[in-house]
Write a structure and sequence with these properties.
Layout: H1 3-21, H2 28-46, H3 50-56, H4 59-73, E1 89-92, H5 93-112, H6 116-134, E2 142-145, H7 147-165, H8 179-197
Antiparallel strand pairs: 1-2
Helix pairs in contact: 1-2, 1-4, 2-3, 5-6, 5-7, 5-8, 6-7, 7-8
């Protein structure tokens, strides 16, 4: 096993144990994705290699990271199977279309930057979204969705917007002049999903933007 693999496996186990101790149920694969994202972010911001980023990730920083994750993603029900989760949010089909399109664009970014773990995470969100949508009543314009799934997708879009704003390679065919609008659209989609996920007044939600505008 490579040194990188050994470090990541060890830290994944440590981080998962720390999160479990904080009451956050989460799988090894999900922790691995979060840890990879953190390393990528640090390496980009500090202009260092991943190996250097690993050396700087001390036990104390792991504990701080675990606490921040527990506070930030507890509503996403890490480790829970979304297929069995309560589908309490009614997502308009137009908003579903926007979500699928946003995930597709975010996946293009992951592909362009050869971020396999990010690509896998996004494809998992897209697959789950599709399977739950396919299970909905075909005669309704509102698709019941699990709130944690929408929050997970919103965070994924936010993370993609952040990497692009920090200089990640754009998808093929997208000009550099489109970088800022692309980031803004991803952020709007993330914010719109969070708004729908947190709607509690019982009124049918509306999409957050016009896809043809």
């Amino acid at each position: 096993m490579s040194a990188r693999g050994t470090w990541l496996d060890s830290r994944t186990t440590q981080l998962r144990q720390a999160l479990l101790g904080l009451g956050l149920t989460i799988t090894d694969s999900q922790v691995r994705v979060l840890l990879n994202d953190k390393l990528d972010e640090y390496a980009r911001l500090m202009h260092v290699s991943r190996r250097t980023a690993q050396r700087h990730f001390t036990d104390n920083q792991l504990a701080i990271f675990a606490n921040s994750l527990a506070a930030a993603i507890s509503d996403e029900a890490p480790g829970a199977d979304m297929a069995d989760f309560d589908r309490a949010v009614l997502l308009p089909t137009s908003a579903l279309g926007l979500t699928v399109a946003a995930l597709a664009e975010a996946l293009k970014v992951a592909h362009s930057n050869l971020e396999d773990h990010v690509l896998t995470d996004g494809l998992s969100h897209l697959s789950t979204l599709g399977m739950i949508a396919a299970d909905a009543d075909a005669d309704t314009a509102l698709v019941p969705m699990p709130r944690p799934l929408l929050l997970r997708i919103a965070r994924y879009l936010d993370n993609t917007a952040k990497t692009v704003s920090e200089g990640a390679k754009l998808p093929d065919g997208l000009a550099e002049s489109a970088r800022a609008p692309f980031v803004t659209t991803l952020q709007q989609d993330a914010d719109g999903l969070r708004t729908l996920a947190n709607t509690e007044d019982g009124d049918p939600p509306t999409p957050w933007r016009n896809p043809n505008a």
